[in-house]
Design the sequence.
């Protein structure tokens, strides 16, 4: 039995915890494994993951006048169910986004396994207070190793993003005012319409995008952003005629000594674009790359964290945090670009053949939330939306082919 663990939430985690109580703030990622067979020991693998990663066995406790805390529950196991074969794993992703977590009960993660004739896709749904999307790509690496029979040692409790960046936890008020009534999700109706769509690009196109982006002084992220924005504007009158608000999660994990830990390390940047921006594809790609550069530096990320701590010093409740999130981050679309998976994708007879996601809703009806992961030389794209722009992912593919091949 591992010792009881209790640790304070950082500012980002506290924001996610509060927002989740007004609008469910969790995400789903999927990974396809080939070679594990129909009798793969998923239950044992999930139990071993919980022993390895401390935040996969916690609940959240909040008290007036104190920092909310992650509290370990060593008896709480990750729930596991088998997918409905009639809807497949994309349908199960959509279903999972409709099911909120109760943060008072551990663990804040659950699993679904979808099997077909070629392999098994493991879906992990996680409360955003305990993890980010890159965390789960490393969890999938651990799953690969565990399925192949390897042993993994338990990791220590990772530091919060505040500690990672050298920020102090927010100051506590002398006269605490926050109350936490049981809040129910205000967006349940549109969540029932959420759909997850997916598209894998060819290896040739993925290679061409990276090569062309470098020659144009930008990145694959910049090219994907331009393809999403221009593709969306070519298909949606709303996107064409309104000032476009686009979100970019920016990872702070580059500043961590340990990449493989499970904890939330990111900030969010919003880019606004006029209806007639006048930018061509590669100008827009460079513009999007430039927009996130400040948040990638330790000084920029630290400054964003300090602003967030000041917001939380007033001890806002879930409703106030929801108002803040919608006034600052309501968007037409978002792109969570995970980048290239950096580890080997085969262990023994087991191969990791795809990673999909993150699938997520920020609480905005009609938002297009795009995920992008490059694995084994191929880009894997997802779009999550209650009102998906028809043909958005294929349009992005055609724009990228036309500009890069």
Sequence:
């Amino acid at each position: 039995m591992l010792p009881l663990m209790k640790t304070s939430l950082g500012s980002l985690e506290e924001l996610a915890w509060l927002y989740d109580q007004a609008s469910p703030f969790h995400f789903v990622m999927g990974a396809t494994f080939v070679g594990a067979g129909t009798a793969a020991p998923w239950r044992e693998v999930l139990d071993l993951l919980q022993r390895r990663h401390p935040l996969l066995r916690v609940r959240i406790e909040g008290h007036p006048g104190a920092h909310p805390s992650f509290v370990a529950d060593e008896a709480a196991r990750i729930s596991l169910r088998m997918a409905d074969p009639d809807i497949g794993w994309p349908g199960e992703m959509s279903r999972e986004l409709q099911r909120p977590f109760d943060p008072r009960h551990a663990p804040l993660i659950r699993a679904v396994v979808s099997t077909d004739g070629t392999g098994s896709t493991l879906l992990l749904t996680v409360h955003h207070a305990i993890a980010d999307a890159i965390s789960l790509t490393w969890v999938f690496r651990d799953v690969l190793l565990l399925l192949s029979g390897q042993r993994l040692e338990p990791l220590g409790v990772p530091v919060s993003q505040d500690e990672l960046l050298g920020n102090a936890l927010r100051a506590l008020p002398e006269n605490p005012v926050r109350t936490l009534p049981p809040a129910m999700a205000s967006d349940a109706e549109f969540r029932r319409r959420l759909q997850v769509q997916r598209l894998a690009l060819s290896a040739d196109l993925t290679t061409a995008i990276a090569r062309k982006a470098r020659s144009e002084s930008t990145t694959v992220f910049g090219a994907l952003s331009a393809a999403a924005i221009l593709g969306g504007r070519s298909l949606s009158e709303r996107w064409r005629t309104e000032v476009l608000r686009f979100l970019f999660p920016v990872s702070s994990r580059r500043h961590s000594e340990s990449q493989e830990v499970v904890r939330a390390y990111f900030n969010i940047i919003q880019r606004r674009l006029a209806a007639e921006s006048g930018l061509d594809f590669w100008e827009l790609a460079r513009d999007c790359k430039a927009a996130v550069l400040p948040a990638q530096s330790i000084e920029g990320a630290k400054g964003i964290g300090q602003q967030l701590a000041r917001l939380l010093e007033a001890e806002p409740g879930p409703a106030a945090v929801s108002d803040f999130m919608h006034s600052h981050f309501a968007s037409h679309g978002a792109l969570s670009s995970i980048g290239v998976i950096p580890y080997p994708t085969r262990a023994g007879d087991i191969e990791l053949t795809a990673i999909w996601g993150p699938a997520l809703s920020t609480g905005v009806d009609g938002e297009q939330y795009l995920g992008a992961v490059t694995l084994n030389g191929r880009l894997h794209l997802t779009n999550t939306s209650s009102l998906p722009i028809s043909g958005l992912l294929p349009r992005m593919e055609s724009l990228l082919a036309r500009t890069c091949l």
The chain has a mean pLDDT of 92. The longest helix spans residues 220-235. The radius of gyration is 20 Å.
